[in-house]
Design a protein that fits this description.
With 172 residues, the protein is of the alpha/beta class. The protein contains 7 helices and 5 strands. It has one domain: Rossmann fold, CATH 3.40.50.300.
C-alpha cells in the first residue's frame, strides 16, 4: 500500500509516543493535512482536554473524542489520536475501515521520560514519578491489544522524528 492511497493515516499509541511530532512530519512528507484529535476536541468544546475531564469526566471526553474522529475520518490526512482513543468500544474496527492504523510503540520508561511531570496529562496529573510510571504501565497493559490491531507497528523510542517517519513511510 502506498502512502498516497492509505486513506486516513491514524497514529495511535500511548501519550509520549510521539504521535503529534511524527504526525506533523509525516503529513509534511506525504503532502497531506495533519490533525490532532485532542486539538479538535478542544476546538469543538471551546476548552481544554483537562477542563473537559474536570467537568464531564472521562466518559464526556470519550464521547467528544468519538465525534472528532468521525469528523476526521473522511479524507487523506494524517491524524494523531489521543492515547486511549483506539481502546474505546468499536474504535479499532472503525479506524481500520477508514484508513491505515499506525501504532507508535514505546516502553513505559521511554514514555515517562517524554511526558515529564505529566502536568498537562489528566490521567497522570498529581502523581509522583513512580506513580506516573505505574499508571503508564497500567494504561499500556489495558490498551496493548487494541494498539496491536494496527496494520503498521513502528518503535518510536530512541530515534529522532525523521527516523521514525522514514520507518512509517517504508511500511505504508
Amino acid at each position: 500500500m502506498g502512502g498516497s492511497d492509505a486513506g486516513t493515516i491514524w497514529l495511535v499509541g500511548m501519550m509520549g509516543a510521539g504521535k503529534s511530532a511524527v504526525g506533523r512530519a509525516l503529513a509534511a512528507r506525504l503532502g497531506r493535512p495533519f490533525a490532532d484529535s485532542d486539538a479538535e476536541v478542544e476546538r469543538a468544546a471551546g476548552r481544554s482536554v483537562k477542563a473537559i475531564f474536570e467537568s464531564e469526566g472521562e466518559a464526556g471526553f470519550r464521547r467528544r473524542e468519538r465525534e472528532a474522529i468521525e469528523a476526521l475520518a473522511d479524507g487523506d490526512r494524517v491524524v494523531a489520536l489521543g492515547g486511549g482513543a483506539i481502546a474505546q468500544p468499536g474504535a479499532a474496527a472503525r479506524l481500520a475501515q477508514t484508513g491505515t492504523v499506525v501504532y507508535l510503540k514505546a516502553s513505559p520508561e521511554a514514555l515517562l521520560a517524554r511526558v515529564g511531570s505529566g502536568r498537562r496529562r489528566p490521567l497522570l496529573h498529581g502523581l509522583d514519578p513512580a506513580g506516573r510510571l505505574e499508571k503508564l504501565r497500567e494504561l499500556l497493559d489495558a490498551r496493548r491489544a487494541a494498539y496491536e490491531t494496527a496494520s503498521v507497528v513502528v518503535c518510536s523510542e530512541g530515534d529522532d522524528v525523521e527516523a521514525v517517519v522514514e520507518r512509517v513511510v517504508e511500511r505504508l
